[in-house]
Amino acid sequence: MRALERPVIKPRPVYLNLVKIRMPVASIVSFLHRVSGAALLVFGIPLLLAGVSASLASPESYADLTQTLAHPLAKLVLLGLAWAFLHHLCAGIRHLLLDLQVGIELAPARRSSVIVFVVSLALTLVVGVKLW
Amino acid sequence: MTRRQAVGAHYGLMDWLIQRVSAVLMTLYSLLLLVIALVNGGIGYELWRSLFANGAFTVASFLFMVALLYHAWIGAREIYMDYLKPVGLRLTVQAATIVLLVAYLGWTVQILWGAK
User: Fold this and answer.
1) What gap in Å lies between CA A125 and CA A63, rounded to an integer?
2) ipTM value of the model?
3) Considering only CB atoms, which chain B residues are within 8 Å of A56?
């Protein structure tokens, strides 16, 4: 039984090319959960504080702020942050449900990750309609 | 062999739990704002000012920011643990993040209770 004594270890393909790797939808949602969280930390928190600060300082600064936010570029930034917030929120709710052992089988987990995508994009669309 | 590092996770349930409790708190605050906006058909300057003149709302906003900043810290540390392998670099970035987040908390207090 030579084969048992010396198991032949076949070289397995290591496939870590991020461009070519095929990620299941749940891992894309998970990846975007992280990306959106990072964006909210880097851009969201300072902009939120600056915005609330300007909105409360005086009626003039409030008017200035609304004027600044009326700019198409500012609206685009707001829309991006809205998506980041909504995706992070929806993916987070899915995460909590998974923690509570709700929908942890493969098929429901895949379905819920599609729902996270669809719902957060739909809500972002609502925000976009409100903005424009 | 223990693999615990000062710049690693906190190796317990606490951070895991704080991440979830803070998420729920932020969700509730966001829903509160949404309900206020829906009930009043939008939020204009007068309503916005009166909200922050209200002590309970101000404290709720402060709690939201504490939850947000701690949540952000745990999330940032997760990312650093995955991508920043040299300990010195990770320590530097973690320290800088903490300084930034605590500064944000100071800014929050200034906004919520500062001279108006």
Assistant:
1) 26
2) 0.92
3) 48-49, 52, 111, 116
